[in-house]
Amino acid sequence: MKFFDFHLRGKNLEADHTLIKEALRLGYAGVSLFYLEKDYKLALKYLDRIRADINLNNYSLNHSSGNITDFQIIAGLKLKPKNPLDLQKKIRNLPKTDILMVQGGDLKINRAACENIKVDILSRPYYKRRDSGINHVLAKEAFKNNVSIEISLNDLLRSKNSLRAKIISYFHDIIKLHRKFNFPLLISSGAASFYDLRTPRDLIALFKCLNMNEDEIITSISHLPRSILDNSLQRKNTIVSGVKVIP
Amino acid sequence: MKLKTLPPTLREDKRYLAFEVLSSQDLSRDELIFMIWDACLKFHGECETSKFRLWLNRSWNLTSKNDSNQLSHWKGILQCSRGYEEKVRGALCLLTYYNQKRIVFHTLGIAGTISSLIKKFIKPVPKID
């Protein structure tokens, strides 16, 4: 089984290198690092260096599968729009990217992201809110436009006591809607340092405690990331909706 | 006077978890035990944690003095009741801070005996192709 950590927060060359090496050690088959618009171009350059370094050095001793040739490092773009109009503008003037993520939290932005077919992931719709940020309307839209809703482990790790309990209840709400409306649900670490990374089996154990079953969790950390990547590849070859270039 | 040991049929089944801890500060074995209990109590509550029957069997301090990052590194074996290993694992992975310093807790694996756990996860034999 190949597991992906689909949201690492990219910072700089050294920090990203450490994160990627740790993810490799913990048994992930791929990671995706997300950058803001201003850092994205620079990040693309140094990610190539990291890829080359990981392939050159023999890290395979630590890797559970023993094979690192398949290890995927994907760069993604993270948008933090102020309002839905700003989101549309930013998407129009977007640099070429594999994956597009929108930081949620504001209800209008959550809705605009769920309604936009170009958005791959709506990250943390519950961020700085007193509810999950998703309702039945947004859930239907997310399913229609194939927008994944991300829940981040980092929110659990950085909180404690009542705040952690509230975040868990938001997770429960999102999971309930996911079961009813079948929108893609993504589980990721949202790690900014190697202290935030957990092994895939730990993630499965934790989300089992939150009443998800093993199949749902495996879909969220293994099958869904692969399908997002496939969609992104297809999108590159698409000229207009329904017409694509066959290589 | 010591209680007579229960016959094997009446004893609770056990599972063993191999774990590793990385921390930015020095840790002692007692602190490790406190952290494990605290994590389980906070996440599952007193009633549920009472069913886990947690016991730290072995621990190894692997901190290297030459380590430039000054990371404290521990490995250990934690005993719990059979059927609750996933709950213990889930609670332990939520450990992030101890004394306001960063800490990370990885479960390396689960086994039914200590010897197989050590063989598989603590001192794994490298595979020869």
Task: Provide an overview of this structure.
The complex is a heterodimer of chains A (247) and B (129). Chain A has 247 residues and is α/β, with parallel strands linked by helices. Chain A has one domain: Metal-dependent hydrolases (TIM Barrel, Alpha-Beta Barrel). Chain A is 49% helix and 17% strand. Chain A is built from 9 helices and 9 strands. Chain A has helices at residues 13-25, 37-56, 84-92, 107-115, 136-144, 153-157, 161-181, 200-209, 214-237, and strands at 4-9, 30-35, 72-79, 99-103, 121-123, 148-152, 185-188, 238-240, 243-244. In chain A, the strands form 2 sheets. Chain A has a 7-stranded parallel sheet with strand order 1-2-3-4-5-6-7, with helices on both faces. In chain A, strands 8-9 form a two-stranded antiparallel sheet. In chain A, helix 2 (37-56) links the parallel strand 2 (30-35) and strand 3. In chain A, helix 8 packs across helix 9 (214-237). With 129 residues, chain B is of the alpha+beta class. Chain B has a single domain (12-122), classed as Alpha-Beta Plaits, CATH 3.30.70. Chain B has helices at residues 29-49, 85-92, 114-122; strands spanning 14-23, 55-61, 72-81, 97-98, 101-111. In chain B, helix 1 (29-49) packs across helix 2. The longest helix of chain B is centred in the first third of the chain and has 21 residues, at 29-49. Chain B is globular, with a radius of gyration of 16 Å. Chain B starts with 13 loop residues before the first strand and ends in a 7-residue tail after the last helix. Chains A and B meet through helix 8 of A and helix 1, helix 2 and strand 5 of B.
